[in-house]
Amino acid sequence: MMELVKTGADNHEMVINMGPQHPSTHGVLRLELVLDGELIKEVRPNIGYLHRCFEKYAEELQDYAKVIPYTDRMDYVSAMNQEHGYVIAIERLLELEVPERVEYARVILVELQRIASHLLGIGAFGLDLGAFSPFLYLFTEREKILDIFEKNSGARLLYNYFAVAGLMRPLQDDFKGDVADFVTSFRPKIKELEDLLSYNRIFVKRTANIGVLPAKVALNYAASGPVLRGSGVAWDLRKNDPYSIYDRFDFDIPVGTGEMGTVGDCWDRYHVRVLEMEQSLRIIEQALEGMPDEGDVMAAIPKRIRPKDGELYVRTESPRGELGYFISSDKSAAPFRIKARAPSFVHLSMLPAISKGALIADVVAIVGSIDIVLGEVDR
Amino acid sequence: MNETLSSMPFLPALLLHAAIPLTIILVYALVAIWAERKVAGFIQDRLGPMRVGGWHGWAQSIADLLKLIQKEDIIPADASRFWFKFAPFMMFAASYAAFAVIPFSSGYIGSMVNIGVFYLLAVTSVLTLSVIMGGWASNNKWSLLGAMRSAAQMVSYEVPTIATVLTVVLVAGSLNLMEITELQSGNDTLGFLPNWLIFQNPFLITAFIMFFISILAESHRVPFDLPESESELVAGYQTEYSGMRWAMFMLAEYADMLLLSLLGATLFFGGWNSPFGDFLAGPFWGFFWFMLKGLVLVFVMMWIRWTLPRYRVDQLMAICWNILIPLSFVNLVLAALWEMIF
């Protein structure tokens, strides 16, 4: 007992639990912080509060198509992207042809979802740093995207809209007009966001040179998406390993340049997302032009999906990074194994490495800048 | 009104003197909390409370107050019970007591003491004590962190506040807030401007800017709301408080905001003096002008709150010790030189 008291007196460290009910851990993440005053000595992320046995369910469902609504629930902020990766995997497994109109519609939906997801990510990041109003401005824009989704799929968050080799429901007649309207109305808002938040002095002070993630460390941890691009590595699966019809579009890969501080700091990761929204708009515009007005939204597919023996890994660029599905099939109607590779999980594992020596407020900024979704971390 | 009061027996006069600022604070707090939500709503492109009471949700704060009164009074198991209960009252008492020296109009001041400014600054520093008391007694690490932050912040920012207030005192030559206000009557500056102190000396303009930044920090408003920054420290020193005890903290904070704004209005903007000379002057209109000036400053605080992000704790300290304190003292000397020369 005496020993314990003594170590306590000599030791200035304090262990504090941040989460799972903390307001800025973006869900049910628990961080064990070892603090010396407000200085972080160590961060230990604890996960598993939202574990829903995705892989086991996928095996038990006895049908490949039934897994699609489950993929929605992994990263519930970008459900379209999760579905997209999964249906592409099934289509490759079955070697199915997807109608042209569907491919274009999917790209538009997925890019809209990317913007919606970035809007939420950026808004919540600002909220973490105390900027309340930009969050609501961005939510207004996100709402418009969700309205388009609702009109076509019937749902606002978890859509269950993509089907194997098609879409669950036909697109509404004014789909193209709605999207075009959104694109024109949204463009000036990016400029507004840049003025309001990106170059705000306090915001820059809070994010520049904080949580620096060097490119080497990022690559060693297998980071991807905006987190990797924020560290200055131009790696985007839509360009580097094109899937769907992404090879037809012309767009740039924004990377972190260290404009406000060091390459790979929180500001860079944040700003890559802002620039990506503009690139998504470009893709949407091109897709709207190329999209055929007529056509089926569903290809003829076998009634029961029974792929051949084999396994494959399909990776797509979700708003958070490389979203991979590994599927192993054994000729039966049920997948032998489905494993999802979630970018958030990988990025969360870097947290201890990049937040050593930071302050509590910086940890909040770092967690916000890597933009994790706990549903995807735990699956 | 002071004359009427002084002719009354001691006890009723005392109670009346205590009741007037209390009424003002309570009514103001109800209005300010509603207004804060409306301001936030309009800034964020939404409506804010719209339902309770009919017209633009005017009864929202009353409904909230009723709700808070009915709430269970939770005290954490390992908290230090006495101090935990005592802290909110002490905090409110501190900001309430400071209203005694505020000259609400030419006819009413709670206590006509010669060292009003000094008394006000001394009494409000008790707020720090109650914040630490509440945070430490909660036996919660987040509360403790919040309390430590707030102690550091308030102690640091008291220095520039006092330095800028001293600048005013130096120009006005008095510590009595009533006398400082009376000095600012009339509209002679440059022929048309009111004789407010802010127009009397260029270094008082800079002093006011620094004073305003300091009172933002003193009253824990964004961008200096670190003691209760919800995204970092949950709710800072208030984390374990609920129901009426929490409401007391809230009330004290709004009262503090008003107090410091009214102090600013008295020191720099002529207190209860009408901006138009004799037009709409007199004790009643004096009260109106005084509250208006104070509420404009309160509105600016709200406006800033819903616009800016928050500083980090070390940046906050750096701003105070590296910039505000040296500048405010240099400003004090320059203002003194200006007074000497002109």
Overall number of domains of chain A: 1
Structural class of chain A: alpha+beta
CATH-derived topology of chain A: Cytochrome-c3 Hydrogenase, chain B
Question: Distance N terminus to C terminus of chain A?
Answer: 42 Å
The oligomeric state of the chains shown is heterodimer
Q: Please count the beta strands of chain B (DSSP E, at least 2 residues each).
A: 2
Number of helices of chain A: 16
Total domains of chain B, how many? 1
Q: Main interface pair?
A: A-B, 28 and 28 residues
Question: What fraction, in percent, of the residue positions of chain B are helical?
Answer: 55-70%
Record keyword descriptors for this entry.
heterodimer, A: 379 residues, alpha+beta, Cytochrome-c3 Hydrogenase, chain B, three-stranded antiparallel sheet, 16 helices, 8 strands, disordered N terminus, B: 342 residues, mainly alpha, two-stranded antiparallel ribbon, globular
